[in-house]
Amino acid sequence: MRPAIAGRIAPIRGAGIGAVVLTLGLLAGCESESEVAPKPEMTMAEPVVMEAVNWQPRKVRVEAVGTSRAGKSVTLYPEVSGEVVEVFFEAGDRVETGEAIVRLDDRDQRLAVDLARVELEDAKRLYSRYERTRESGSVTENALDDARSAVERARLSLERAKVALDHRSIEAPFDGSLGITDLDPGAQVTPSTAITTIDDRSRLLVTFQVPELFLGQIEEGQSISVATWANGSAKHTGEITDIDSRVDSQTRTFAVRARVDNREDRLRPGMSFRVIMELVAGRYPVVPEVALQWGNDGAFVWGVEEKKVKRVPATVVQRLQGAILVDSDLPEGMSVVTEGTQRMREGLPVADITGLYADE
Fold first, then answer.
1. pLDDT tens digits, one per residue of 108-143
2. Which CATH number fits domain 74-189: 1.10.287.470, 3.40.190.10, 3.40.50.10190, 3.40.50.620?
3. Is the dihedral of CA 122, 128, 132, 134 positive or negative?
């Protein structure tokens, strides 16, 4: 009868994971020691601690300095020269679209509108009279055409007079907050005289520069965090809206613009910010820091395949807390040796004692 061999690996309390006892025994059924057939020398499995590989995205934190401007911002200038007769605002006032800010002397323009309106009415009456007598043949077609053209010219003259009158009033082009002005009633202005500024501060546009290395990793709609230099913490969030179409050949950077919500009106246009972005650049295997080994040809890990170890080259991509992102041919779920690496060699059988070692 052929004898059977049984084996057991047990950890020794207080010892390292390499201290194991292999107990061999002969099962019942052997009549004598001489009946045990000789066996070839067996390679004992090396006890090791393993950990499975998982994959995760590589996260890169990018910080930049950004400069802000209002979502809408203009400096107001008059269309024409004239004398200021009324100033309707003070610095910091909120205005709505179309609300008058400054009025220039417009007496001549109002008279011009009235005159154009009278001329239009006269032209309409003449044309109407010609129309009524058209059937009698007393009015030629040429005279009728001239009267029709006169009506159109009078209408255009009236519209031009209204435009000239509108130019005597400077109005808000959009809802916003007004800046400081140096104008007072009686001041003379020209088209080159700045009246004031108006900013829509409900949202800010923050522009910052990003190294060309990250070109293609930034997309419109991506979230960012911004912080003022006063508090240092990122208490505001934004969304990327625009990415420049070219890279600056001098700085090797490209411009990115983000929109930051400011409905609480705590920020001001022109402020600088610390911009923080979290970028995701590909997925890589994650191995424990203790699993990474170094040899003459670079870094590697001991991977376990069919209960045998093999040397797998690994390039460090990013260091994490207690783990390392590597560029390596390590399938997700494959185990790597974390304890006992000093005794490894290519093709060595190993026994996983992770659970036993954890119980010590």
1. 999 999 999 999 999 999 999 888 887 777 788 888
2. 1.10.287.470
3. positive
Q: Is 175 exposed, middle or buried (0-12, 13-18, 19+ CB in 10 A)?
A: middle
Neighbouring residues of 85: CB distance < 8 A, sequence distance ≥ 6: 103, 104, 105, 185, 186
Region 316-341 average pLDDT: 91
Helical ranges in the chain per DSSP H: 107-132, 141-166, 354-359
3-state secondary structure 80-106: CCEEEEEECCCCCCEECCCCEEEEECC
CB 74 within 8 A of CB 197: yes
Contact partners, residue 254, CB within 8 Å, separation at least 6: 209, 210, 212, 215, 243, 244, 246, 247, 248
Q: Which two tokens stand for residue 228?
A: 């003022």
* CB contact at 8 A, 178 and 92: yes
Q: Is 92 left (phi over 0), alpha (psi -120 to 50) or beta?
A: left
Architecture of domain 49-57+283-359: Beta Barrel (2.40)
d(CA 90, CA 178): 8
C-beta separation of 97 from 175 below 8 A? yes
The single-letter code of the amino acid at 138 is: S
Query: For the segment 190-230, what is each residue's pLDDT rounded down to a tens digit?
Result: 999 999 999 999 999 999 999 998 888 898 999 999 988 87
**Tokens matching residue 306:** 């069919």
